[in-house]
Amino acid sequence: MQKILTDIEIGKRLKMLRKRAGLTQEQLSELIGVSSHQVQKYERGSDKLSTYRLQQVSHILSVPIQTLFSDLESQPICEQEAILIEAFRKIKDRELQENVFKVVLSVSNNS
Question: Looking at residue 46, what DSSP letter applies?
């Protein structure tokens, strides 16, 4: 059974994922409609993320919600994968991002 995380642990993961996505607290706060101080509280674990906010955050950061709760260290990736993920997340146009995803998926299925 997977460990139940504390609000502080979830907040740390939120902070790490936000930084990986190249967003500041201010940028994330604008995207989810809260103050940057509120994002800071989420990241410190002093305030809980509601189900609605979890959905918003996962969508904006382009990660499944479970990423905020899963043991990221048990999912090692190589340097090339990390670079690919970082580059993919930098694509701001969602339609273009979806097309890139489809190409990569198609190529990987034909290998």
Answer: S
44-to-11, 82, 88, 93, 110 alpha-carbon distances in Å: 6, 25, 28, 31, 44
Query: Which letter does DSSP use for residue 1 in this model?
Result: -
pLDDT computed for residue 72 by the predictor: 53
Q: Mean pLDDT, the chain, as a whole number?
A: 87
Kindly give, in sequence order, each residue whose CB lies less than 8 Å from that of residue 14, ignoring residues fewer than 6 positions away: 42, 43, 49, 57, 68
How far are the Cα atoms of 24, 32, 104 from residue 54, in angstroms, in the given order? 17, 10, 27
Tokens 């993320």 belong to 49
pLDDT above 60: residue 24: yes
Q: Has residue 71 got a pLDDT over 70?
A: no
